[in-house]
Amino acid sequence: MKKSYLLTLLLVSSVCLNAFSQLNVAAAKKLIQRIVPQHYQNFEVKYLPKTGEQDRFEIESKNGKIVLSGNNGVAISSALNYYLKEYCNFEITWNGSNRNIPKVLPVIKEKISKSSPHELRYYLNYCTFSYSMAWWDWKRWEEEIDWMALNGINMPLAITGQEAIWQKVYKSMGFTDKDLQEFFTGPAYFGWFYMNNMDAWGGPLPQSWIDSHKDLQKKILARQRELGMIPVLPAFTGHVPKSFVNKFPEAKVDSVNWQGNFPNIYMLNPNDPMFSKIGEQFLKEQTKEYGTDHYYSSDIFNELNPPSSDPKYLYDISEKVYSSMKKVDPKSVWVMQAWLFVSAHGRKFWTPERMQAFLKPVPDDKLVILDLYTENRPRWKNTEGYYGKKWVWNMLHNFGGNIGLFGKAQMIANEPARVLEDPMKGNYSGIGLTMEGIEQNPFIYQLMLDHVWNSEPIELEKWTNKYITRRYGVLDNNAVKAWEILLNTVYKDNNKDQGAPESILSGRPTFAQNSYWTWTDLYYDNREFVKAWDYLIKSADKLKNSDGFQYDIVDVTRQAMVNYATALQRQLAYTYYAGDMNTYEKESKRFLELLSDLDRLLATRKDFLLGVWIEDAKKWATNNAERKLYEFNAKDLVSMWGHKDITINDYSARQWSGLVENYYKSRWKIFFDQSLQKLKNNEAWDQAEFEKYIKDWEWNWVNKQEVYSTTTKGNPIDVAKEMHTKYFPTIAKTTIVK
């Protein structure tokens, strides 16, 4: 039996290895057909061997065709993307694309050759699977995998469908369906379930979900592998059902708590013999079901400090985790998110001595450290480039799927290339994107991805003008002026931590400047920023048919309006405490009117519709109970985040049509009604009393089944112009005081 299993493992591993080491011509051609269906016959695909560890591609015109040569599907796709961007002003982004191509494809006069200086190009964060990907079907996954390949990503995190493996493993150990119902979270919370932070919340998980997503994972992996990617699959982290302590009372199990007032979860100590046993069984079952590419993600202390600070203990823990992988798969490579070293929980705990002890037992070439937040908290700099291990420079950028305009453009343009020449870089092996949420700020992500095939710093102004041309189809002078301002305001380098500044409108109502996870202070002058809005409005008639421009003008208008909401709230607080009842009542109505106008603006683009998010969730349901569960998951994550007494409410801070009008505006109306009544009665405002009331209201909203539109309403250009006429003269003169 053991011999038969090992033979199966070797065969499956061999198939997977061949998938990403050789070019699958048929798969590459199919991608070309999906991307440019009217022109795919004008392209030819050829194999080009690697040079050392570097992926490479070439592009040339030959015999009336564009010949794309590369060592695998990612290289071929990148060659296609390079040609389309540089020669056809073609670009695909999450939010707005320009797919216009000349009828006659431009000829390449001299052969183009590119090699990637980065062996590994990583993509995704556990959180992305919740904040953005929770409800994706195969069609949406197919689009994203194509986008990954076009942009040179070769190492995506692939954790869909692991519930089916855990179900099989734990049931073989005697756990019941009830035990697992108290273990698996709902789909929107898998990210924190996978990272050992919570159990059960948002569940019970239906069997239909487990079965359907096992099938979905097989499609995802097959497509990624045939294009030459190296999917990173999960490994055992020690997370066990809470009934484990009763079933195995002699086992060494640690009860640990995350945050947000969630119940403790249970972690099997890696020094317990059962840790290796379960870890090995999980990898065996996973390999049988999904195959392997030998790269495994395991993060055992995500936002949780280890129970002991003894370096010997930390060494033993790491050795046990790696050995449990290696025993099943001798080619195992451990991929580790370095968030544990940079999060607020870990920065003080992980001294150099402890970190070195933790990393030491894994061979240098068998560990990949994801420096998860390099653009803001680079850990490689004070760890000698992580002490000889491979490490990847990552841009985290986004928290919670917040859609605020934000990014450190100049630093992103320079730093990944600069580190290539840094004498302290250690075993710098790649770059990556590790955002919590996607489908926002396409500019900053396309900028970062231009480092994949480039070893030189990017000339930001020149690059931005090319981006404008690709995105809008023409280099319009007013658009150029708008982007010059954007680069010097929302996209200028800054000291902001934890992503974009939020607007107070999406925080729980208060008279304070900030509200829980809603931090509103700007690092730029809003009066300067809105000049970009003015220039985009001037470009509108010329660029109105551009999908990318339509998105951008709505997004910039949105940002101007939500910043103005923060300014209004600060003025309202002053007016309230001054006892000016008439002005307070008048200005609160103006605030609510602003939110309704904002909702109407957002309704013009599908990118900003709450209804799409909710309906995508409900599509996975097979009965009414599942529909209700998935709707709860979808609404809860982007609003309360958890239960009524959660301490991270409004973390996602999204301005979406439906959410603004029905959730944010409704909360603020209640706040204004109650505070005005207090003012009329000459009573002091009691924020604690209000929050007790509003938590119940929020919980009712989360649990209420409602239908939100999945279709757009209104023309984005027309509504943006209307908002500009109505608000720009005032906003342009408004200072957001601290």
Give me the secondary-structure topology.
Elements: H1 2-21, H2 25-35, E1 43-47, E2 56-62, E3 65-70, H3 73-88, E4 112-115, E5 120-123, H4 128-131, H5 138-150, E6 155-156, H6 162-172, H7 177-181, H8 190-194, H9 207-226, E7 233-234, E8 239-240, H10 244-247, E9 253-256, E10 265-268, H11 273-290, E11 295-297, H12 311-328, E12 333-337, H13 339-342, H14 352-359, E13 367-371, H15 384-387, E14 390-395, H16 409-419, E15 427-433, H17 442-449, H18 460-472, H19 477-487, H20 526-543, H21 547-577, H22 581-602, H23 610-618, H24 624-637, H25 659-680, H26 687-703, H27 716-731
Parallel strand pairs: 1-3, 5-6, 5-15, 7-11, 11-12, 12-13, 13-14, 14-15
Antiparallel strand pairs: 2-3, 2-4, 8-10, 9-10
Helix pairs in contact: 2-3, 3-5, 5-9, 6-11, 11-12, 12-14, 18-19, 19-20, 20-21, 20-27, 21-22, 21-27, 22-25, 22-27, 23-24, 24-26, 25-26
Mean pLDDT: 94
List low-pLDDT spans.
1-20
Largest sheet descriptor: 8 strands, parallel
Number of strands: 15
The amount of helix comes to 40-55%
Strand order of the largest sheet: 6-5-15-14-13-12-11-7
- What general form does the structure show? globular
Please compute the radius of gyration using only Cα atoms.
26 Å
What portion of residues belong to β-strands?
5-15%
Number of helices: 27
